[in-house]
Amino acid sequence: MTRLPDRFAALHAQQRKALIPYISAGDPDPAQTAAILHALVAGGADALELGIPFSDPAADGETIQQANERALARGVTLQQTLAIVREFRRDDATTPLILMGYLNSFERAGFAQVMSDLAAAGGDAVILVDCPVEALPDYEADLNQSGITPILLVTPTTNPARRRAIVQHAGGFLYFVSLRGVTGTKQADADAIAADIRALKADTGLPVCVGFGIRDGATAHRMADLADGVVIGSALVARLHQAAENGDSLTDTARAFTADIRAHLDHKD
Q1: Which of 3, 22, 50, 155 is 20 to 30 A off residue 184, Cα-Cα?
Q2: Region of 216 on the Ramachandran plot (φ > 0 left; ψ -120 to 50 alpha; else beta)
Q3: Set 49, 117, 124, 228: catalytic member
Q4: What is the pTM of this model?
Q5: In which element (H, E) is residue 21 found?
Q6: Is 49 one of the catalytic residues?
Q7: Strands 18-24 and 152-154
Q8: CA distance linking residue 230 with residue 237, whole number of Å
Q9: Catalytic residue among 46, 60, 117, 124
Q10: Residues 6+ apart with CB under 8 A from 63
Q11: Which tens digits make up the pLDDT trace of 162-206?
């Protein structure tokens, strides 16, 4: 599957930065999750990250933890998440779609089988949040056979030797975590991570995208100046939840949120 590298190659040729929004499968409304994904693309998303509801999402802050709890309370499972991927792919053959989850979710259903099912559904990549690079070789044969790309995380505390090991196993892009801690807890500081991103880019030819702590267009723009794209999750999840509480259109909210971030990313200083 080449959707992810093809998309980054096209963005590079256009001198544009990638916008990758995250939502939790089944939140705020399982029946509308695929429609929300389409709305994000309509607003300017270049790739999509879809979280699998999990009872103990240790890397996520309160906003996404609560989204997981709401989705689980509605009975959303891994299999329903894959059904959302299939529904989305019926009308969009080109936008890369990344599943984000914890190993327990995949292993309970059989890792190899899930990767095969994800590929058949139209998925492109996975973020295995709690899989250290040392454990990744246990899963690489199944990933390679399915064609699913592992997206690996690098943090500000990753030492140079470990960073190089991560780069050797990574595909698609490197996900640079801009903050110490969990998602959605504070705002990212571009100046604080500039040297880390330069060092990471010196180690790899893969694109580098920054996530955690990106709450608005201005922050996204500053981060994209350093990297090849941004991932934005908690702020979007919170906005969708508020829209649901207010009775507002979820698709209109998703489209408007993404369009605002896109406009900031495309703005030339």
Answers
A1: 3
A2: beta
A3: 49
A4: 0.94
A5: strand 18-24
A6: yes
A7: unpaired
A8: 16
A9: 60
A10: 183, 184, 234, 237, 238, 241
A11: 999 999 999 999 999 986 544 444 455 677 788 899 999 999 999
